Amino acid sequence: MLLGIPDFVTSHAGVDTMGEGCRIDSSVSVMRFGQRSNVLCLADGVSLYAQTRLVLGDVGADPCVGMHIGARTIVNVGSYLSGEGGLEIGEDVLIGPHAKLLSAGHAIDEGDVVIARNRITRARIVIEDGAWIGAGAIVLEGVTIGRGAVVAAGALVRQDVPAGMVAAGMPARLIRSRRGAAWPSSSSPAPIPWHGKFASTLKTILSIAGKRI
Questions:
Q1: How many whole angstroms separate alpha carbon 171 and alpha carbon 154?
Q2: 8 A C-beta contact, residue 206 and residue 197
Q3: Residue 40 burial by Cβ neighbours in a 10 Å radius (0-12, 13-18, 19+)
Q4: Model confidence over 93-114: pLDDT tens digits?
Q5: What are the E-state strand segments in 10-155?
Q6: Cα separation of 11 and 198, whole Å?
Q7: Which residues share a beta bridge with 42?
Q8: Which of 68, 118, 170, 192 suits 211 as a labelling partner, its CA being 20 to 30 A distant?
């Protein structure tokens, strides 16, 4: 007996295509309207846990609207996934509880003073194979999370995270490689090559020698 794990299903309201061995909790909801096929597609072995919300809105509003989730990806409880600007999630991805992937927003610097009356902005989010989006993390529109990259719990990601890197913070910044090599800060001075150090040392010695003569 498995407690707290969704049952196997062969269909779910709002999902267009589904591979074999998918698990979807009955509380998972899909928000969509309009007519278009193959907008929400799940590959084999996808798991969607309780209270996950998949949002597409008007599927005919823009060709970019859509959500594709790769094989064996797990979306944990309470997550919010927006395909309004396009959402591509690769294989073997882990999405932690209450994570939010937001591929759409509202224009704020134009149009009506009332935000709700302004146009919707859209930009595709891509989560590549084997990445991990930590609990409560937020990924904003237009961001790509590279293969095997990690977004730490609670991070707010506004820029791409390269493959194999770890991003943390609010806003998120790259802190290191998963293999342990430090990611250089843009403000860090460039390393001095050995010949540069030698020339500097020689210059110092000659300067001291000149003062003694």
A1: 10
A2: no
A3: buried
A4: 999 999 999 999 999 998 899 9
A5: 17-18, 23-24, 29-33, 40-42, 47-48, 53-58, 67-69, 74-75, 80-82, 87-89, 94-95, 100-101, 104-106, 120-122, 125-127, 132-133, 138-139, 144-145, 150-151
A6: 69
A7: 18, 69
A8: 192
Residue 139 one-letter amino acid? V
Q: Are 167 and 175 in contact (CB under 8 A)?
A: yes
Q: What is the pLDDT of residues 20-69, one digit of tens each?
A: 999 999 999 999 999 999 999 999 999 999 999 999 999 999 999 999 99
Task: Tell me 161's DSSP state.
Answer: B
The tokens describing 47, both together, are 């798991």
Return the closest-CA partner of residue 105 out of 141, 137, 156, 142. 141
**Beta pairing class for 132-133 and 138-139:** unpaired
> What torsion, rounded to 10 degrees, do the Cα atoms 163, 39, 64, 174 define?
-20
Q: Cβ neighbours of residue 96 under 8 Å, at least 6 residues apart?
A: 76, 79, 132, 133, 134, 135, 136, 137, 153
Q: Which one has a higher pLDDT value, 138 or 193?
A: 138
Per annotation, catalytic residue among 12, 68, 98, 106 = 106
Decide: 88 and 69 in contact? Cβ < 8 Å: no
* Per-residue tokens: 89: 């999630």
pLDDT of residue 111: 86
* Residue the block writes with tokens 């294989």: 91
Instruction: State which H helix or E strand residue 100 sits in.
Output: strand 100-101
Predicted confidence (pLDDT) at residue 203 exceeds the cutoff of 90? no
H-type alpha helices, the chain: 194-212
Indicate if 106 belongs to the active site.
Answer: yes
